[in-house]
Amino acid sequence: MFENLSERLERSFKLLKGQGRISEINIAETLKEVRRALLDADVNFKIAKQFTDTVRAKALGQEVLKAVNPSQMMVKIVHDELAGLMGGDKTDINIKVNPSIILIAGLQGSGKTTFSAKLAKWVKTKRSRNPLLVAGDVYRPAAIEQLSVIGEQAEVPVYTEEGNMNPVQIARNAVREAKLKGNDVVIIDTAGRLAVDEEMMNEISSIKSAVNPHEILFVVDSMTGQDAVNTAKEFNERLDFDGVVLTKLDGDTRGGAALSIKYVVNKPVKFISSGEKLDAIDIFYPLRMADRILGMGDIVSLVEKAQEQYDAEEARKLQKKIAKDQFDFNDFISQIQQIKKMGNIKDLMAMIPGVGKAVKDLDIDDNAFKSIEAIIRSMTPEERSNPVVLNGSRRKRIAMGSGTTVQEVNKLLKQFDDTRKMMKMVTKSGGNAAKMLGKR
């Protein structure tokens, strides 16, 4: 997402390089390119024009410090305005009431059902709540079954009523069920249509009146660009929703919806979602998104993802094993599993400042670890804990068992040995550094 916009903005800033100060003359071409970049990203013309007008007003007359050139100053101004355009600060959902009722709305195909399950898992794991999913889409074939399947994957109960075609009654009964069973968050998945129509709007308005939700989230397919913004406007006029969810950010989207939707409906984007995995959901941080658009990475989100997988006790045990040169393939595969839980490898790399542009054209397979895992899992317990015993015949057996070649097995063993040596060296130097600091 935003790759084309990022490149266009970067080119526009280069027009100011070598300039001593920002002036009406040298800023004109830069802002023209910025506006073109926004329009190409499917941002509404009026929004793009107002954005560049605001940037021009803030940039002109700015005193450029000796340590900062005009190009850098323009990046800072555009960054701040982009963050402001997308909402400024992150906005949380309201789940303070027991039970908190969340109504999910949107067009058919926007990803409502998948997001509902993702949100249920999120409130369960990140907020320690006890959610209940409600299958309120009684029209789409297999919608109830789909929610039941992914609800089971998320380990969240799903409320259904077989044969009942009244979604208003189902929603009301589900809230009653939640109070009886002790579910403190009720997430209602509603029916959508291929386009906005009166029947759908009346139905979801009736559900809203029946259950009085504490939070209404409008789910929008970010790949639809300006159409998504127009749909959000129509839904907001009827539902007065509380926030927006942008889905399919891993697709070929230009980003216009993310940049425009807050401006048009004056409602914050609260979540972003990508892919089918149930943990592929993130709180929307406008400042961090502005960082990523301008190629600054998103190191804060990367650290947060790492911290979610970090276990202090396990880390201490691992450090002791490394110090004693006892790091083995059991530890190695455990570290791989933690990295995989953090998400898509290419997306993670793009969060590192300066790396996103370098990897954008690379085909980084998320299954890159599969052959490594297959090799390790083809080893016996003794071989995993004591790699020294891996002679030629054992390596041949492992290659056959893992569907790889002896050369691939040898390559992994060499990489593992180099990694173990490096880990021991880093641990040893860290210990010496600590001793030196202690003597000061």
Main attributes of the structure:
Four Helix Bundle (Hemerythrin (Met), subunit A), alpha/beta, 440 residues, 434 Repressor (Amino-terminal Domain), 20 helices, 3 domains, Rossmann fold, 8-stranded mixed β-sheet
Provide an overview of this structure.
With 440 residues, this protein is of the alpha/beta class. It has 3 domains: 3-85, Four Helix Bundle (Hemerythrin (Met), subunit A) (Up-down Bundle), CATH 1.20.120.140; 100-294, P-loop containing nucleotide triphosphate hydrolases (Rossmann fold, 3-Layer(aba) Sandwich), CATH 3.40.50.300; 307-439, 434 Repressor (Amino-terminal Domain). It has helices at 3-14, 24-40, 45-59, 70-85, 112-125, 143-153, 167-181, 198-211, 226-239, 256-265, 286-293, 299-308, 312-323, 329-341, 345-350, 356-359, 370-377, 381-385, 392-402, 406-439; strands spanning 100-106, 131-136, 158-159, 185-190, 215-221, 243-247, 269-273, 281-283. It has an 8-stranded mixed β-sheet with strand order 3-2-4-1-5-6-7-8, with helices on both faces. A hairpin with a 7-residue loop joins strand 7 (269-273) and strand 8 (281-283). It is flat and about 70 Å long. The model is unreliable at 431-440 (pLDDT under 50).
